[in-house]
Amino acid sequence: MLERLKTTKREGWRxxxxxxxxxxxxxxxxxxxxxxxxxxTLASRINIPHCTKMALIHDMAESLVxxxxxxxxxxxxxxxxxxxxTMAFLTERLLGKGTGAAGQGQAMREVWQEYEEGRTLEAxxxxxxxxxxxxxxxxxxxxRAGGKIDLSEFTRVATEIQLEExxxxxxxxxxxxxxxxKIVREKEKNGT
Length: 192
Description:
The protein has helices at 2-7, 11-14, 24-36, 40-43, 48-57, 62-65, 76-94, 104-117, 121-144, 164-190. Helix content is 65%, strand content 0%. It is mainly α.
């Protein structure tokens, strides 16, 4: 099952012709590293190892349901239902059996549920990191394409970030993006 997270590409980018883009696993891994880089003012108030675990678990259900994007037309309740059933299958039926996994399935399900509910400071932080990772990936794809792909529709997620520390982090990336696009426009203007 976990192999599917490594081989399933994130769907939002494919609409723009980015077929060799990040996998679900790539996304979760970078998020987990980002949780360890939490700004000091936030890191002192949250359980970083718990956030890292949450980042690694939050999209596990996509191994079976796929990466459902807002453009897919699936309402949030249905997406949540599909992912909840999948997490129940993964954590109760697959991880609830076998050696070494005893008890881990339930613990993973609880971390996933905490993320889904988004009430704890840790869950809010990981939700923000999810959005921040998307913004960072957007900028990387635009830069890699030399300004031939405009992924600005993804900047909207920056407005959904809740925590001030992550907002500031995201604003820095968006400033760098604006500088990049200034250079692209200047080159186009000069015909270079």
